[in-house]
Design a protein that fits this description.
The complex is a heterodimer.
Chain A (H helix, E strand, L loop, with lengths): L23 H14 L17 E6 L5 H12 L3 E6 L11 H9 L5 E6 L4 H11 L6 E7 L5 H15 L6 E5 L6 H12 L4 E5 L15 E3 L2 H5 L4 E4 L15 H8 L3 H4 L7 E3 L12 H4 L6 H21 L1
Parallel strand pairs in A: 1-2, 1-3, 3-4, 5-6, 5-8, 6-7, 8-9
Helix pairs in contact in A: 1-5, 1-11, 2-11, 5-6, 5-11
Chain B lengths: L8 H12 L8 E5 L2 H12 L6 E4 L8 H4 L18 E9 L3 H11 L6 E9 L11 E5 L6 E7 L5 E7 L5
The chains are: A alpha/beta, B alpha/beta.
């Protein structure tokens, strides 16, 4: 009998590794916990003492600015001590294994690891290793692993959608772009289906849709104009040039013409539809500047909400 | 099951109003600790003359038992719609017991600014302090067995009442 490795004996969240299989009540608990954190900016002292004296290690084996920074801000607003390690440039290049690195940091009394890795499953491996070593008081939060998952991005997307649209059950959400390489898309799709979103659509050229996408409960559209019709939420994905291998696309210009979000294409969605993007944006490739900066864009609020959501995740796992 | 010693909540509130009315600063802010203290703060603001800004505080993030009992979902939003720096504040709670909630509330207030003075008003003081904290104003003093928790409730008409239930977790 295999238990969900991120949940404890009583179903409490011990690690956050993926949104796949995470019960709706756990997701709702995280989103509810994030709400009061969002107003912390009004204070003289923009901190609460929940994680005072805890050491949070940001283990980034892969580059990131936004995710690492917002995790750092979240941990600092909870009064934790944050240690940033840019591993790509240190021990592993000298030959140390991932788990040796983890053991060394545990010897420095780490309480939590925020992990980004180019290999799918790396955070899961660390969590299992900690359990095997009897260090179940040390927690792991996945900050993006390979093509697998980016659960805090999925959660902040869910938070944003709930903030503007209240209830998932009547919504049509379109995810547009490079779904093949996108852990953001995978996490969001799992989250949206768990929260009983009425319809999730994936809009992309055939070459950027993974096989058996429909098995996740989504509708695949290769024609953007057809897929955007009457949507409540449009989530644009970045065209991941650095992950492109082989000729998956004719050219960025051709892609923009067919799939780039312009005012003309957005007009097919509902009049109050919101536009999201996990960042960083490629203006003129997947999104047109007037849309990115327009009244329906909630791309910058997503970043702000991301801090509150990460605070909620860190404070929930730290207590379990 | 109500022990004979438990006072009527509305009578305790009236007694608290009488103690505060002559003594409290005319511009003191009233800050209720969620949830029972918030109800009492609203009632006191309506019945004690003066200009009393009303605020509410949720101490979930400042509690000393976070590591033991974790974080409750749906912490209420602390709202202090006045300038805390230099203000006189009456912290208001329903039941004063160990003093730990008050300690947490005082810490939280200082993260908004440096108040000139903080007083404490409680509906019921049940003794049993674990910290050197005392009420400036108390509506009633009662003795209740250690394993019971005093619970304030409010009916739809706004009438307050006191009851007891078995103590769960840390007070």
């Amino acid at each position: 009998m295999s238990r969900n490795p991120q949940l404890g004996r009583n179903g409490e969240l011990v690690h956050l590794l993926t949104l796949e299989g995470l019960p709706a009540e756990v997701i709702t608990h995280i989103l509810d916990t994030a709400e009061p954190f969002a107003s912390l900016g009004e204070r003289d002292v923009k901190k609460v003492p929940l994680l005072r004296g805890k050491a949070v290690f940001n283990l980034f084996f892969e580059n990131s600015t936004r995710t690492r920074t917002t995790f750092e801000i979240a941990a600092k607003r909870l009064s934790a001590d944050v240690i940033n390690l840019n591993i790509g440039a240190s021990s592993t290049s000298k030959g140390e294994t991932l788990l040796d690195t983890v053991d060394n940091l545990c010897a420095m009394n780490a309480d939590m690891f925020v992990v980004r890795h180019s290999q799918s499953g790396a955070p899961h491996l660390i969590a299992s290793h900690l359990t095997a070593m009897g260090r179940s008081h040390v927690h792991v939060v996945n900050a993006g692993d390979g093509r697998h998952a980016h659960p805090t991005q999925g959660l902040l997307d869910l938070y944003t959608i709930r903030h503007y649209k209240k209830d998932f059950r009547g919504l049509t959400v379109a995810i547009v772009g490079d779904v093949l390489h996108s852990r953001v898309a995978r996490s969001l799709i799992h989250g949206l289906t768990t929260m009983q979103t009425a319809q999730v659509r994936v809009i992309a050229p055939r070459t950027l849709v993974p096989a058996q996408m429909e098995a996740l409960g989504v509708k695949v559209c290769n024609d953007a104009r057809e897929g955007l019709r009457d949507c409540d939420v449009v989530v644009m994905l970045r065209l991941q040039n650095e992950r492109m291998k082989g000729a998956l696309l004719p050219s960025p210009g051709e892609y923009f013409k067919n799939y780039g979000l312009t005012g003309e294409k957005l007009a097919l969605a509902k009049p109050d539809a919101i536009v999201m993007h996990p960042g960083p944006m490629n203006r003129g490739v997947e999104i047109d500047t007037p849309v990115a900066d327009g009244a329906r864009s909630v791309i910058l609020p997503q970043v702000t909400f991301g801090i509150a959501v990460r605070m909620a995740v860190l404070s929930i796992v730290a207590a379990n | 099951m109500i022990p004979s010693g438990l006072p009527d909540a509305e009578a305790a509130l009236a007694a608290l109003v009488e103690r505060m009315r002559p003594a409290v600063a005319h511009d003191a802010a009233f800050v209720g600790i969620y949830s029972g203290g918030a109800w009492i703060a609203e009632r006191l603001a309506a019945r004690i003359p003066g200009n009393h800004p009303l605020g509410f505080i949720d101490v979930s993030y400042y509690r000393d038992d976070y590591a033991l009992s974790g974080l409750k979902a749906n912490a209420k939003r602390t709202a202090l719609p006045f300038d805390v720096a230099g203000s006189t504040i009456v912290l208001i709670d329903d039941v004063l017991y160990t003093g730990r909630s008050v300690r947490a509330a005082i810490n939280e207030l200082f993260d908004f600014g440096r108040p000139e003075r903080i007083e404490l008003a409680v509906l019921v003081d049940r003794g049993g302090r674990e910290l050197p904290i005392e009420a400036t104003y108390a509506g009633a003093r009662v003795a209740v067995a250690r394993d019971l928790s005093i619970v304030l409730s409010r009916d739809p008409g706004g009438t307050l009442s006191l009851g007891v239930e078995p103590l769960s977790g840390v007070a």
